[in-house]
Prior knowledge:
The chain has 3 helices and 6 strands, in the order H-H-E-E-H-E-E-E-E. With 149 residues, it is α+β, with helices and mostly antiparallel strands.
Amino acid sequence: xxxxxxxxxxxxxxxxxxxxxxxxxxxxxxxxxxxxxxxxxxxxxxxxxxxxxxxxxxxxxxxxxxxxxxxxxxxxxxxxxxxxxxxxxxxxxxxxxxxxxxxxxxxxxxxxxxxxxxxxxxxxxxxxxxxxxxxxxxxxxxxxxxxxx
Length: 149
């Protein structure tokens, strides 16, 4: 597998483990000293970033993160990537939903265990929030629940 394919798989793993709340696997996507900047929400290292996601996007928060159109450049053991993000966060407890889009700007480092995120972050192109009570007929089902039951 070439470097670009490996970096794509890393980004997809980052998104999948974030949405499935697999925090140990999510943490493995990053270098220990990885940084993050999500539209001004800044993290100085992996531990702080993972702790924040676990606390704020954990159980009871339904999330969808999709990254498209990768632009990846590799230079030896370093790489950069730009991705178009579409995301959604639903918090049924508060009848809240957020939808948005952004452009990720990532840096990656090759390690003996494969590529890892050295820095990740995005700048929003838009963000919309909703009160689910304002959406007639809206029903939210979480993991394992089915609308046809």
